[in-house]
Specification:
With about 80 residues, this protein is mostly helical. It has helices spanning about 5-15, 20-25, 35-55, 60-85. It is elongated, with a radius of gyration of 15 Å.
């Protein structure tokens, strides 16, 4: 597997996204996540990271950009749908 310089930034950024609701819980009573919420968010972010890594192995730069955009858009739709439940 080829090491890429963006990889720590990708996974660090995805892990950092889990800190946002944690900080929100400290600042506001309106943010009320349980352990299950954090576990599901971690699973979804891990799947997003794996999908992005897989897509970045595609041969064409234009195809990579399009596929990453699609993966992130699909993730955003799923996240938004789950937020309404």
């Amino acid at each position: 597997m080829q090491r890429t310089p963006f990889r720590p930034w990708l996974w660090g950024g995805l892990a950092g996204l889990l800190l946002i609701p944690l900080a929100g819980m400290q600042l506001s009573a309106e943010v009320d996540w349980t352990g299950a919420d954090f576990a599901l968010a971690a699973l979804l972010l891990a799947l997003l990271g794996l999908a992005i890594e897989a897509v970045l192995r595609l041969p064409s730069a234009a195809l990579r950009v399009t596929a990453v955009t699609g993966v992130v858009a699909g993730f955003a739709v799923l996240w938004g749908w789950l937020a309404t439940m």
